Amino acid sequence: MSLVSRHLEANGIPTVILGSARDIVEQCGVARFVFTDFPLGNPTGKPYDSEMQRAIVAYGFDVLESARFPRTTVQTPFTWDDSAWWRDNYMRVDDTNRELLRRAGELRRRQQSRRKVEGHARAT
Amino acid sequence: MDDVHDPAHRMFVSYIDKSREYYLAHGYGNPYRWAHHEDAPWAPLAKPLAESRVALITTASLIEGDTDPDPDRVPAGEPYASPVEPPPARLYTQHRSWDKDATHTEDLDSFFPIHRLQEFVADGRIAELSPRFYGVPTDYSQRRTVELDAPRVLDWCREDGVDIAMLVPL
Is the domain of A75 the same as that of A107? Predict the structure, then answer.
């Protein structure tokens, strides 16, 4: 998505990204980025919290109007909850699940090679 | 140290670090090379927001009917353009990487704020929405994104007279 943003900017269309994967977007390098420090999945606000969703979209407009140079990141003031569990839990790798992940990878590779044979992979 | 942040670690989650370790643990030995640029292109606003036509761009996919397909059987996606009126009742997200333990995507506007944008049109904060929104699959291949998908989205934006694009990756 950051690459699409860059392409639009390079061709004269101003953009703003609303997202939660800060390092991925910033490493790619985009013009304007509104960062909300949430688990991935709800970059424009908590489900059914329309007030928060409005606020995050409004930050997007504010950044469009106020940013004067690229790589402008603004962090919204919202926090997910009072715990850090989701930060540790997502894509967790430790001694309790290492063997499980290894076996899941093997299964996944078998499925992928089967999909390739069946022609589901995207044409290059 | 408070309960939420350990100051020995960065404040926000590094998905580059996390995904590298996660896929290494799955036995994928060749870590993903994330896009990296020293520069960033810049297009200034051509006119005030209140006179601008705004496009919404998502990484979610269109889906027919109410039954979710098996995420492992969803064909690799192509970019698409679809009318904003009426807004889609739902978009498919299960094939994308997001935190399925911590949250859900049952509320469209939590990742595709189409109704919120319509409210801003009604308020006059922006002039109007592009008649179509655009979907771009998250593609492992940066070459396909840059050479195929991004130019298609640009073409659609130009056809639809888009002044500003709001991009929301899941």
Answer: no
B70 and A CB contact within 8 Å: no
B contact residues 71-110, partner A, Cβ 8 Å cutoff? 72-73, 75-78, 93, 97-107, 109-110
Predicted complex ipTM? 0.93
DSSP-assigned beta bridge partners for residue B80: B135
Within-domain flag for A88: no
Q: What is the pLDDT of residues B41-76, one digit of tens each?
A: 999 999 999 999 999 999 999 987 667 776 666 656
pLDDT 10s digits, B88-138? 999 999 989 999 999 999 999 999 999 999 999 999 999 999 999 999 988
- Could you list the residue range(s) of the whole structural domain that residue A111 is in? 93-124
Angle subtended at Cα B70 by Cα A39 and Cα A117, rounded to the nearest 5 degrees: 115
Query: Of A12, A28, A64, which has the smallest distance from its Cβ to B37's Cβ?
Result: A28
Q: Is residue B63 part of a domain?
A: yes
Helix (H) / strand (E) element for B25: namely helix B15-25
Number of domains observed in the structure of chain A: 2
In a domain, B11, yes or no: no
